[in-house]
Amino acid sequence: MVGLTTYLDRAKFGVWDVRAGLLPGQYIQGITAAGGIAVLLPPQPVTPEIAARVLAGLSALVVTGGRDVDPIAYGQTPHEETDRPDSTRDAWEFALLTEALRRGMPVLGICRGAQVLNVALGGTLHQHLPDVIGNTGHRAGNGVFTPMPVRTVPGSRLAELVGETCQVQCYHHQAIAEVGAKLRVSARDDDGVIEAIELPGEDFVLAVQWHPEESPDDLRLFAAVVQAAVKYEQAQVSR
Fold it and tell me: Name one GO cellular component term (predicted).
């Protein structure tokens, strides 16, 4: 049972135009194709106790892509290109992530999810990557993903999963700046931008800045978190 965080945003379907809890189907398909059962976790008011109750029924957590994290969370004022914050989703995901890490539960972060993990552990973000590298190559706009190669760090968990290099699909205008406590960089792109981070140790905690759900023929990251979820569940049962 793999929990995936979702959006709470405006959606149109049929005669309806309402706020809805939603997530692109590619995430769900990635988890189910890898053998997992997807459970959607829409943003809502949260306490540590609620986060614990939610995760008690799950075996892994996927923190998905979406709107920019509120810069207040890492001690900065908003850049003019930074999205209007979604405080409910921020609080929801920080609470779930904190509890998942406390439990040693497998975690996979995707795009925003990588940024949430980094900020949760005290790191910071570049709020607008073009200001740093001088180009908009990581986010073409209009929902068009940019294929680009990334190079993994030897000895990292990510390198074990995908090898020395990997072609990925990117759509982000922010990126990791200062790396959070205990995290290590596990991939960069040709611009030197951090494209993946992980938590060393036995617990599966890995986050990528790209969108693996946009590469349906490459299930390695989804398979890895599902396999980690199986091991986590087996460990809970044996206690």
Answer: cytosol
Catalytic residue positions, numbered: 111, 211, 213
Domain containing 123 equals 2-238
Beta bridge partners of 31: none
CATH number at residue 137: 3.40.50.880
Tell whether the model's pLDDT for residue 237 goes beyond 90: no
> pLDDT value at position 41?
98
Q: How confident is the model at residue 118 (pLDDT cuts 50, 70, 90)?
A: very high
Rg (CA), the chain: 17
If one counts the domains in the chain, the total is: 1
